[in-house]
Write a sequence for this structure.
């Protein structure tokens, strides 16, 4: 079990990482030109009104003091108060996290459901027509920008066929599920293209590998060799590719949430940026960063579980 | 003489372009016999054995002709499904590079049990017990614990032992060993060869030992078949072939063996390279490199002629009897 010792030790490394992320998000947010108080009150606000707002949110302090407040709040499990929404940022994120979480998990699951069969069909029919079809489909998936794909899916499935809602999120579970189909599909189609290519290449390398030949020499059928010896060996590189892409995908939800008007964290982030709502931007950025770190941690655990040779 | 377990008659393997990588190969394997299949790299020994297992990379390579009779049953015409029932059960195979031929992410014991469960329908528990037993047979210490190990936790020699355990788990009649010691260091080589001979003595398995090392052949084999450029040059009992080689190529190979005792100066070599598969010479395929060419060598393929009991050679101008002797 010593191979899993890192599960206990790794979180210690998260502390410096998160500290670094907190510095970067804090500084970058304040580098955006513009003033939160003026954004809130408009161009005709009086100087004293502006001062009052700045004092209220601690923006009149030096940047060092502001950062220390930010850290102090973080340790207390708070992220400050939103200037625009006038509520606790953490509470705000709490109300917005569900759609984003569903979007990320749903699109990853959908991408895997698409990529595994596609790569399997391509690898087992290498060079033949099914392989060519998969190649064309995945190239299209790679080359299509998600925002355009989102609009096309909307036109086909919502406007023309009237099967699914155009945008928004809904209240009941079936409503929410219906609203999330197209956003998840948008992300999954791009992501599955990347995964399909990687998995196809690994599968082909493993199908022609010596260990697969040895398995055939034991009398195993091609199907058994594939699922028992080829797939388990081919999955690890794709798993790591997926982990890298989830980081990028969390950022990608911002675009998809905007296009589909999903009240998630991506939308919150954009509103925060436009209104220079420092606390909101910091808070959402911290959440995204923590999520990315955790996803990579999870991928490391899965890699160790899938490949007994790996030591971390 | 007892009936052979395996009888190969006129086996030929062709590429898609019709080039014959193995041409008209014939030999018999008696129960408990160890046959050394000898030749340089590219002589077709590995292709020939893949053909026996029907594991050629089709459609690039295919069996063009011949019969492979395993206890009277022709494997060449067998359906793929029935051939799967032969592989691992009647015919076991071990490979040159055990590291690459073991599944790195499956426990060794499970890889052994896999064949037992498939061929004998054994239960999970029974198959596990058989796997432990197989590991014990090949001399792996503490087999109960080692069955749960992965290949990377084994040394090179242990990995080859594990390969042998996988191949022999279902007590096959014939074991094909494709250069089983080439990737191992010398002391481990000797252990693995001794293990193969032990297994032959204990289980009566017949072994085809593919090698380019005549020293290995001299130590382990009962009989020898020498391949050159896909064709059989000479075949017979070890004593006959090594003691009184008839084919010029066999004689050359024997001269090239470095000896540890009394050898001085330059090592002997056979001049030139084996021919490319796309440009096979006419007549005897060895004639461009042969030191004793006569006119007919350039034009006609030599017939196989008897040289002694069970000893045949295909050479127009064979080495005169007793021209050379080698300690066997």
């Amino acid at each position: 079990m010593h191979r899993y010792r890192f599960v206990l030790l790794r979180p210690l490394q998260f502390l410096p990482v998160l500290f670094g992320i907190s510095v970067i998000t804090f500084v970058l947010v304040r580098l955006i030109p513009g003033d939160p108080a003026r954004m809130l009150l408009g161009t005709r606000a009086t100087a004293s009104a502006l001062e009052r707002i700045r004092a209220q949110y601690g923006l009149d302090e030096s940047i060092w003091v502001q950062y220390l407040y930010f850290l102090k709040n973080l340790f207390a499990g708070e992220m400050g108060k939103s200037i625009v929404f006038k509520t606790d940022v953490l509470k705000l994120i709490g109300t917005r996290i569900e759609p984003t979480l569903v979007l990320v998990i749903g699109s990853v699951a959908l991408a895997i459901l698409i990529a595994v069969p596609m790569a399997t069909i391509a690898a087992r029919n290498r060079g033949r027509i099914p392989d060519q079809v998969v190649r064309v489909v995945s190239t299209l998936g790679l080359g299509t920008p998600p925002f355009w794909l989102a609009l096309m899916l909307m036109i086909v499935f919502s406007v023309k066929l009237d099967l699914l809602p155009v945008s928004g999120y809904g209240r009941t579970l079936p409503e929410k599920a219906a609203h999330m189909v197209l956003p998840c599909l948008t992300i999954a189609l791009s992501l599955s293209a990347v995964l399909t290519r990687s998995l196809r290449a690994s599968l082909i390398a493993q199908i022609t590998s010596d260990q697969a030949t040895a398995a055939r020499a034991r009398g195993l059928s091609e199907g058994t060799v594939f699922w028992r010896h080829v797939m388990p060996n081919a999955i690890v590189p794709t798993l790591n590719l997926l982990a890298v892409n989830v980081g990028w995908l969390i950022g990608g939800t911002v675009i998809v949430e905007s296009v589909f008007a999903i009240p998630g964290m991506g939308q919150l982030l954009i509103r925060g940026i436009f209104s220079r709502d420092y606390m909101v931007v910091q808070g959402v950025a911290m959440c995204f960063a923590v999520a990315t770190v955790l996803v990579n941690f999870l991928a490391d655990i899965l890699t160790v579980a899938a490949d007994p040779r790996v030591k971390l | 003489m007892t009936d052979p377990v395996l009888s190969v008659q006129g086996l030929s393997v062709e590429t898609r372009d019709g080039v014959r990588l193995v041409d008209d190969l014939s030999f018999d394997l008696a129960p408990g016999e160890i046959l050394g299949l000898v030749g340089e790299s590219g002589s077709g020994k590995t292709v020939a054995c893949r053909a026996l297992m029907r594991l050629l990379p089709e459609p690039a390579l295919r069996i063009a002709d011949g019969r492979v009779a395993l206890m009277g049953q022709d494997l060449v015409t067998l359906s793929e499904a029935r051939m799967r029932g032969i592989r691992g059960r009647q015919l076991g195979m071990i490979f040159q590079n055990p590291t690459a031929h073991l599944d790195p992410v499956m426990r060794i014991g499970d890889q052994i049990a896999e064949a037992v469960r498939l061929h004998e329908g054994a239960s999970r528990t029974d198959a596990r017990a058989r796997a432990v037993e197989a590991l014990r047979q090949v001399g792996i210490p503490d087999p109960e614990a080692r069955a749960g190990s992965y290949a990377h936790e084994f040394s090179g020699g242990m990995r080859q032992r594990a390969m042998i355990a996988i191949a022999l788990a279902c007590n096959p009649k014939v074991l094909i060993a494709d250069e089983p010691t080439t990737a191992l260091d010398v002391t481990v080589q000797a252990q693995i060869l001794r293990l193969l001979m032990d297994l032959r003595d204990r289980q009566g398995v017949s072994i085809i030992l593919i090698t380019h090392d005549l020293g290995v052949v001299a130590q382990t084999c009962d009989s020898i078949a020498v391949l050159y450029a896909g064709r059989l040059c000479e075949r017979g009992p070890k004593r006959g072939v090594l003691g009184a080689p008839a084919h010029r190529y066999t004689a050359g190979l024997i001269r090239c063996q470095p000896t540890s005792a009394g050898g001085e100066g330059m090592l002997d070599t056979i001049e030139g390279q084996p021919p490319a598969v796309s440009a096979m010479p006419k007549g005897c395929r060895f004639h461009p490199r042969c030191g004793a060419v006569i006119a007919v060598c350039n034009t006609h393929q030599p017939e196989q002629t008897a040289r002694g009991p069970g000893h045949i050679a295909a050479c127009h101008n064979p080495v005169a009897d007793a021209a050379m002797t080698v300690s066997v």
About this structure: The mean pLDDT of chain A is 88. The domain at 97-306 of chain A is CATH 1.10.3720.10 (MetI-like fold).
